[in-house]
Amino acid sequence: MNKARLLAAGVLLTFGVTAAVAAQSRFEEGVFAELNRFRSDPAGYADYLSDYRPRFEGKLLIGNDDREIDIMTREGVAAVDEAIRDLRREKPLPTLAWSNPLARAAADHVAVQSRSGAVGHYTKGRGPGERMKARGGGPYVSEVITYGHHTPEGVVDQLLIDDGVPGRGHRHSLLRPAHRYAGIACGRHPVHRTMCVTLMSQTRDGSAPPPPKRK
């Protein structure tokens, strides 16, 4: 993996039991910085994904070191190559501003799954929109989640490669120009070791965006 990239992201694994419930951790800061690095130059970011190619043994993605689990992918290196081709066609996007309300709703999900070992966007029947409303915001949010990565760039790369996801929904969510805010919470997971939840929205708290201005 590119050493300069690791240093630039400020990579330290500083997960707590409840992660970003109270304050943004260095890891979450790293994911946020990496997300904005990608959005500022998607075409250039595609070059980083080539670092994954040598790590594949068939469809098995070998972890970077003993802290990161090996992941059995569905598509292998083909999904990486597709992501590289896709990103090289993209133009720069607006960078995202940090949102504490979005981060708190993300942390609620981390807190539940870090105990239960569940995966996915729903816990106890509540999805990201319901969690955001419970925090006093609105339901107009997009949520992406990764499991098993212990570096900020690994989190963003997994979302962009989007192995096995029909329609590449996570990749398209990260590429959505309308997103202006993001909140991130990461923590430990009893099955996959780590998890990271990112909520994005056009508004700071997921409320309805203002109507477009009449010309």
From TrEMBL:
Protein species of origin: Sphingopyxis italica
Residue ranges of domain SCP in the record: 83-194
CDD domains linked to this entry: CAP_bacterial
Keywords annotated in UniProt: Signal
InterPro entries: CAP_dom, CAP_sf
Name used for this protein in its record: SCP domain-containing protein
Signal peptide annotation: 1-22
